[in-house]
Amino acid sequence: MEQIRGIERWTFLLIATTALTWHGGQSAGAEMAANPAEPGPCEVSAQIVEIDEISETRLFFPSDSECGEVTAAPYPGLVFAHGFSMFGLTNGAADNAGHGGHMASWGYVVAIPVLSDDVEGRLEDVQAVLSYLETETATPGSTLYQKVDVGRLAAAGHSFGGATVLALAARDARVKAVVALDPVYHQGGPFGGEEPVIWDPAIEGVQVTVPTSIQGAPASNCNSEGDYAEITPFVGASHKAEIFIVDASHCDFMDPGQSMCEMVCDGSVDPARTRLVRKYMTAWFNYYLYLETDQHAYIYGDEADADVAAGRIEREVSTAPRNLTATGLEEAITLDWDLYDHAIVAGYNIYRSTESGSYSADPYARVGRVSSYVDSDVVGGQRTFYTLRSRDLRGNEHQASDEVSAVPEGSLPPSPEPTPSGELEHLLYLPLVLARGEIDGK
Questions:
Q1: pTM of the model
Q2: Does domain 4-318 match CATH 3.75.10.10?
Q3: CA distance 406 to 382
Q4: Is 243 within 8 Å of 237 (Cβ atoms)?
Q5: Beta-strand relationship, 148-158 and 175-181
Q6: pLDDT at 191
Q7: Is 41 helix (H, G, I), strand (E, B) or coil?
Q8: CATH class of 325-406
Q9: pLDDT for 91-131, tens place per residue?
Q10: Residue 104: in which H helix or E strand, if any?
Q11: Contacts for 435 with CB less than 8 Å, ≥ 6 apart
Q12: Which residue ranges does the chain devote to CATH 2.60.40.10?
């Protein structure tokens, strides 16, 4: 199946020091998340191969079976789908080779095929690439022998390719995470149109249930509808994020790209914005495929917050537990919710209050990977309020669920008998009478 047409060796410098953490390793000094915008710890090799009827596929992969202390084969496999080919005038594999090299430096086997502009044909091709990765890692003598973890296959794509990988995630259960870069799905080529061209998110979006990140840019000649914002609400994933790169052009999402994109899409390329694209794509896959909890900071935490504050990105995320309910029982309240079946969720933190919207900073209870909890420390007849957050393996929390409440069966405990008003006045007056000597001993 594999015919090598060319080979080159790319070496990426390991910039991180021992203060950085690679894929779950512990830092020697102060803990600091490895910056996913920078090259990872792996030396990278690249090959050009033929897969079935695909004219050219560029492979990028770690040169050795280990890179760094804890990053080792088998590595997650990633297929990258390029955008509209200008009727075959551009080479999408070459135009996105920078993404392939960067992801491989972080410990991924990346395949970037040259795709046609035929809708179903390119979907079949990216599925063929996934099958190729599965076959080659199981074939002794193959360059990729035992290098690909077939349980951690993922997809990324730009423009038309962004829509392609979203459709792939909806239809192919092998895909475990997806990143769409300024996806375009409307008819009419780069200039848009009202009809879906490859994938209708209103119909199939709910079937995209794996962790999904969608990056976007202002509307342009090549994405006149700003499709990223239309797609995200339809995506069914329990964990999803929409990252808007402020002032980005459609071409900023390619690496290294090509001049024709700039001419057609009417937008300049800024390396700083391409760096943001690379950072958020890498952090997403590191978090959800490698379970690298330090990368939480670059998606949901301080690092992403800093980009928001600086006006570099705008961000909408959805990670809240779904379908939380509370049911009052005899002397107890039962909570039920949908368990998110992904290894990034180590458990749930439960917050409780007797006042709506007012919760302690510390959770009332911590539970594991379960979908229910019985609170028996409640007062009969008293309404109790709850919210729920999932947490990752390091304890980083995700978004809070909607608030729910319930009243346990029973009644509130009786209040003390009130003292008759006349007797109360007498008791209050008694010390003053004693002090004045006004009681004669009777």
A1: 0.85
A2: no
A3: 8
A4: no
A5: parallel
A6: 44
A7: coil
A8: mainly beta
A9: 999 999 999 999 999 999 999 999 998 888 999 999 999 99
A10: helix 97-105
A11: none
A12: 325-406
